[in-house]
Amino acid sequence: MRAVLLAAGLGTRLRPITAGTPKCLVPIHGRPLLDYWLDLLCGAGIEQILINTHHLAARVRDHVAASPWHAQVYLAHEPALLGTGGTLVANADYIGASPVLMAHADNLTTFDPRALIAAHAVRPPGCAMTMLTFRAQDPRACGIVEQDGCGIVHAFHEKVAHPPGDTANAAVYILEPEVVSYTCALGLHVLDFQTQVIPAFLGRILAMPTTGYHRDIGTISSLDAAHREFPPPARAARANAAQHFGTKK
Q: Contact 179/95 with Cβ under 8 angstroms?
């Protein structure tokens, strides 16, 4: 399976850190956020990852070139930001006619990609998307989902003042080709996936909760919380993973 990792954001809420550092390279325990993502996805067998770039794109390009996973990464530069849905449209040929994993790279997470893919493979009939969910500490800052007893999402509330619960969209999805086709058929160059695509698939989205760590590090306070909560990575484990998986295509 291929993946699309959305990493082109300006990171305005993280200034002044992002004045000279791309949001996806902001460090947690001295390690860029993007490296956590590459280890997680490539280590789980994702064959190729498209990463979109915009702000300080050369920094991202150089960082990826030095990564042990560089052979599995394709960079797609956006001279102007396309939005989370617009990136799908612009790279529909790359995605092709197979399911694709799409994720927002501004989250620090330890979800299990293999488990998400497995859940999607046995999703209920008619579902075109599987969405990772988590329990939000501040539901007002998240997209909150309502689901039935089978885990099918039937309502979605994007950052509302009085959310109906704390089960939040983790911004990690497995998308069937028809979701990409629908997004392209909207005929928009710039669009937002959460507000312009997800509503069209309510009743056809399987929610899968993660038991791992998950936090949006989009603000200074959230980044500080991640440093307090998230355990420093084991250097030996990282080295072993890179050595074991880095030569796979």
A: no
Grouping H, G, I as helix, E, B as strand and the rest as coil, residue 235 is: helix
Q: What is the per-residue pLDDT across 56-67, written as a single tens digit (0 to 9) for each?
A: 999 999 999 999
Q: Which domains does the chain have, with CATH numbers?
A: 2-232 (3.90.550.10)
Q: Could you tell me the two tokens for 243?
A: 């050595």
Query: In the prediction, which pLDDT does 236 show?
Result: 34
According to DSSP, the residues that pair with 155 across neighbouring strands are 146
Say if CB 73 and CB 51 are below 8 A apart. Answer: yes
CB-count exposure of residue 11 (10 Å: 0-12, 13-18, 19+)? buried
Q: Which two tokens stand for residue 194?
A: 């959460």
pLDDT tens digit string along 159-175?
Answer: 888 888 888 999 999 99
Residues 6+ apart with CB under 8 A from 96: 2, 177
Spatial neighbors of 182 by CB under 8 A, at least 6 apart, are 197, 200, 201
pTM value is: 0.88
